[in-house]
Amino acid sequence: MNVTFSAPQLETERLIPRAPQLDDFDVFADFYASPRAHFVGGPLSRELTWRNLALEAGHWVLKGFGRWALVEKATHQTVGIVGLWHPEGFPENELGWDLFECATGKGYATEAAKAARNHAYNILGWTTLISMIDPENTPSMRVAERLGAAYDKDFTHERFGMMQIWRHPGPQDL
Amino acid sequence: MKFACETPPTGAAAQFAASLQNKLPTLATDRLILRAPRVTDFETYAEIACSSRGAYFGGPMSREDAWADFASMTGNWLLHGHGVWTIGAAAGPAGFVLLGFEPGDQEPELGFMLTQTSEGQRIAFEAAQAVLHHARTALGWDTLVSYIDPENRRALRLAQRLGGLLDGRVAESLVYRYPREVL
Known about the structure:
- The complex is a heterodimer of chains A (174) and B (183).
- With 174 residues, chain A is α+β, with helices and mostly antiparallel strands.
- Chain A has four helices and seven strands, in the order βααβββαβαββ.
- In chain A, a hairpin with an 8-residue loop joins strand 3 and strand 4.
- The longest helix of chain A is centred in the N-terminal third of the chain and has 18 residues, at 46-63.
- Helices cover 33% and strands 23% of the residues of chain B.
């Protein structure tokens, strides 16, 4: 038997956002084992990466929103995961972006995050959204700035320590 | 302490969650409904996984780990087409039954996690039998296993009652294999 899920469709110019799936695992494992994952709770073993990938998928079923795996239209490669979720220990729903090594510097995070934010405001009816950023993760802050978000306050995460809350403009300010 | 993420979704998100949950198979037995997990079932999972009852499957877990575990067992449905069911009994959720397949497993496994108060009523047996049948008829499997801590006597007895046969070890666990005849 087959259980077929589709995440809500997002329109972006260069990416196809879709629900995370099994064949994303290897590219996820490479990313979360790499030093680039330092700012997002890594580096992680394959076992913990599996749990994270499954968690991202399960989040859709439990909460009705989640993060989309991003497939690059040009190459059909999975290049990252961006979207709406509520990881344990975060104070509210987050717009989060993890872009894999091969796909940085192209504005993909901004492109996908904009589409995900539109989904939050236009379809889910949310009125505010944050992004949690490691204080040393300046590339991520640049993405937040490009999205029009601004530093709001510090937040101490039980496991990750000090993080910055960046708040996005609300639907009326976009 | 509860995490903010345990708050059930509202509005359009709640509707979309329900539409995904409705895609998962529901199995009915004489006394039980095995159904898709919901955020509100997490309280029951935390009760099991964060207590000494969780010791046989990687616990007792922190509430944070239990949340990650619960969400990932749910996500298994998207990754593999099988996953965790909440065991709905007359008195509310009695626990969970799982067709899982994760790193460390050599093949798909049947797992069962019951609340303390639901023990001794053959609830796990009834739920597990329905899931074995689902594995055969809906998934087309010929066999599957349970990985059981050698000290988990209740689970060992249950696997035997279900027709499982000892089939070696993987790491610390005993492997009980369910042959085609009992599926």
